[in-house]
Amino acid sequence: MALSAADLQKQLEGAPDPFPSLSEPSQRASGSGSNTAPLNTESEDLFPSLATPTTPRAPPPSWTGRVVKPVSAPVFTDSFSLTGIDPSANHSRDGKPKSLSDILKDVSAKFKVKVEVFSQRTSNQTTFTVTGASDSSVESAKKALTASLSPVISITVQTPASVVGSIVGPKGATLKRIREQTSTRIDIPPRDKLMVPGANGNELSRSPSPLPISPVSPGDDGDSLVTVTITGPASMAHEAQAMIQSIITEKTSRSSQKIKISPSHVYPFVLGRRVDFLRVANGADINLNRDDNAHEITVSGDREAVGKVIESIRSCAAFYEGDLTSVKISLPKRQHRLFTAQALEEILQKSKCSVVIPPSSEPSEEVHVWGKATNLGAGLQAVMERANSQHTHAIPVPGPTPRHVLTHIHRSGYGKTFDNSHPEVSIHFPEPSVAGPTTVDFSGEKAAVDAAQKELAAYIALLQGATREVQADYLIHNILNAKAKKQLNGYHASKNVLVYFPPESDAHSNILLVYDPLQKQSQKEKKAALAEVEKEILALVAGIGPLKTETVSVEKKWHHAVIGKNRSTLNALIGEGRALAIDVGGSGHEDIVVIRGSPEDVERATKEVLRIVEEAENDAIDSSHVVEFQIPQQYIARIVGAAGAGIQKYREQLDVKIDIEDLRDNGEQVVGKKKKTTPSNQSLLKITGRKQNAEEAKKRILAQVDKMADETTETLKIPRQYHSSIIGQQGKYIQRLQEKYGVKINIAKEGTNASPDEVQIRGGKKGVSQAKNEIQELVEYEKENNHTIVFNVSSRAVPRILGSKGAKIHEIMAETEAHIDVNDGNKDKTKDKDESATAPITIRGTKKAVAAAKAAVMAIANAVDDETSVVVHIEPKFHRTVIGGGGVGLKNLLARVGAPSDPKEQAGLVKFPQSGDEVVIRGERALVKKVQAELERVVAGLRERIVLGVVIPAEKHRMLIGHGGQPLMELEKKTGAEVQFPGSRSYNQVAPAENAAELEEADPKNVVKVVGPRAACEKAIAELLESVAKAPSREKRENNTQRNGSSSSVAKASVPFKHYHILRQTGNLLRDLRAVGVNFSQEGKPAHEDGAGTGRIDDEVEVDSHGVEWRLVGYGAGVESGSTELTLRARDAEGLESGQKIINDALAKADKITHVGYMTFPDRSAFPRIIGAKGAVINDLSVETDSEIIVPRDDTTVKIYGDEAAVARAKEAITRVAFGGRRNRNED
């Protein structure tokens, strides 16, 4: 209902000023006169309170500042006013509109604030006072109330196109921040859609009239304007508008301008004054960018400073224009190419002169040198030096048709190939389409230029008389290529003729035929081939038929419809492979479209053009069609969508405009003979657009209303532990349910007011019922098959349960097929954890899987609970000795006390510090006690150790060490001391001897160090000296024994030739015999060992990707029959018996061997990795694969003995170690 100005004034009399002065110390209600009676704000009738009853008080004015009440606990209060609040736009879960009291209750509970409401009916204003314990809660509640109660409006802001990027921000960050802060929807059109003057972007407005839009100046650079639409609650929309306006104000304070420097010879001199231009800016933010091709300088930055710099550049250019003079010099065109941009810059720096070179397309050879009169001489000299810096030469392309030759050189790729084959020469081939001289320019060293010129001249000579043109209308070129492409391409293979069509953009009708110059034929044969191809092409052209031209009258205003966006409609009309050309508004006539091509294509295109124009005319009429209908007001909020998203979808999909009018205050009803105005619960929708689109939008909206009318909501109580099953992996299951039954499923989130077990299903009655049944079936299934238990373990056990990078827990889950979640609440706390702290473990799966997983976890947890740690103080000087080389000493110590042999279980049992003397032992209590006792025993012995020196002649050292070191080992075992001879690796690592003063005169080569307890050292020294003293008689006795040939400690043994490999010098057999004091001699040796010499040239040999050859043969194949006789000697019968047993065991093991594998490597580089430190790796491989592996010292073939399966395993293991990376030393 329209109101006159007088009526509107009467309604507003007595209303408070919505924009009071902020400078006045006290606020007063504004009215039309001073005689107006004061408003009784304490009247409960006029201002009923909707919040919790409190002591009545005067309401604060419309725009008051925040007041902080001085109370004992901090209390924050804020007041604000809203006009024309609309609580019914919010709906509860059952779809019913919320009342004001419902909204206040929700906000109070959510933000824990107290809200008081004061209504002013005369001005339709409502004032809210929000009180809370924190400033943030008050502010959040204020924003929530504003968003829930303000009417939804749309505001448009005219924005310069150059500022749109700043509003959006990097990756949309600025736009996202404005949207989140104001809870509004902000629509920014694509950059190519600029503002249409007078357009109204207020497509969704529930306000009687759009709010005024602040005008924005497009700026001095003629920046186009873009319409930015803001949709949301009124106050929020205004806030978003203010934020966007501030960005526009900030950005339009900057500008960017270009200035073209003319004439061009001034440009280089102006560039040299860059520092002066920046000085003119006087410290302002200014950027200078240059475009050398266009001779332009772009200045961007502070608007005022940009103007000053532009003026300074303009003045500078004017100065140089009047101050410079020039001199010209004529240089051959071929030398012009030597003056590159870098060369011109060097000439300017050297002579203070600029050089202007005419474009290559112009025939002029004059070069102009510009500068001050005093500098022109130096400039000319610099130009001549550059012109003569390289030898240049040009050859004209001969013949009556040089363009044909150049076309072939460019289109065949010969020019690029020729240029690449002469890198020392710069070669320029002119474009065939450019008018002017047809010469090829060369520059470089004279010899290289002459050679290149000679080669090119010979090639061009082959093209003389080998070209021909065929005339065919350019419109049919595409048809020829489409219909006869294979035939045209086949001419090169069948007739040595290349066919070149002109570029489509040139619209030329000549087709070039070139006889391949690389095919040496006579001129007669070339002409015959060209004539034959020309005849066939003309026949193809004749088969296409004549062309037709049609002129269609089309007004200029409809040309855009014929062309389409990015020429899309025009391209669709022309199509592919058709002889058709369409010129819209060409030939100097604006209101015509010229169509040329084949008759049928012209006729078709003409009809399409007329149809498009007719549709465009109809669209202009149809777009004004209006459809009006009413829907219940309770569905409006759902139709509009969040921040207008629903209406926006219809606008984008159907190109319609939708306006919504609230009829609640406009309903009229006839009662008797009078019209009575009654409230209405309907809203009027007005859709404007093309008839079909408007009707379709109405149909969709009514269908949406019908769907909402059928909606029902079902709430299920489902334990939270089953919610993840309803959601499914990445939400796939709940999404499938929603799509299958057409429902919306909401699952309560933690931290909300809803019950944590609540699952809400909303949709059509049938769909809700079906989805409910399926969810209940799923929950029953999960109860049967998805058992869950939760128990606590010590937080100290969590790292052990998880393992390195989760390896252990994944191993348990894989073995038990249960899912385990570990929640260590102490992991982010300080190092001083509470030893009694626990961590919950959640296990899900079947009953059997859950029980097995719990048992595995508890086994680890119990082991950790039983652990203890002990600190043993050991001097750092003993650490290396205790650990031993490669950790052998520590491993042996742990083995002696019965510690686990698995390196992974040993890890962390004993930890030596990097510095200090605290050695930590952590593990099971009983094992820790044993390790501690053994460690203290070993260290006690180390503390008692001394070093004594004894002089023994160097020639006796070998005798004392003995064969294989056996006598020395027996001595050390007997006395408990360690003997170090000069020259050994450990000799210099031992401390100096206590009696070093007594040994000063002795030769260092004769000083033997004895290490150990004093008594053990003295006993060992006595034994050594006694052995030296008895050495002659012992040698004599051994000689007598050998001379007599009889001894009670001598025996014989026989080794078959096929087992001869067990007697190798580095084998285990010799080492074991020496360990028991047995030596042997042998008689007889096979010609070939292990069939190694029986290989044939045709034997099958495999070679892998690493170049390793592999051959597998039967054990003993090719080895002659016979045996090696061994003579065993020992000191006593017991030693001899042990030696015989060792040989018999070795032979028994060798009898089980069935195959021998030979791995021949390209070189020996991989052998150190195969052997490992002190043979650790190869020994491990032999044990793991149950085979014997021999790595040679003098060749590249590794031998593997064992049964066939063991040999194959060993081969794979060796390949893995050799080429799969180095093993961890700790694992060795």
From TrEMBL:
Q: Name one GO molecular function term.
A: RNA binding
Q: Which SMART domains match?
A: KH
Region: Disordered; residue ranges are: 1-68, 189-220, 1031-1051
Residue ranges annotated for the K Homology domain, each copy included: 151-249, 253-318, 323-461, 546-614, 623-706, 710-780, 785-862, 866-940, 944-1029, 1153-1219
What keywords tag this UniProt record?
Answer: Repeat, RNA-binding
Q: Which residues form the signal peptide?
A: none
Which intervals carry biased composition (Polar residues)? 23-41, 1041-1051
Top-level lineage group? Eukaryota
- Cited Pfam families: KH_1 (PF00013)
- List, alphabetically, the InterPro entries matched: KH_dom, KH_dom_type_1, KH_dom_type_1_sf
Q: What is this protein called?
A: K Homology domain-containing protein
Q: What species does this protein belong to? A: Serendipita vermifera MAFF 305830
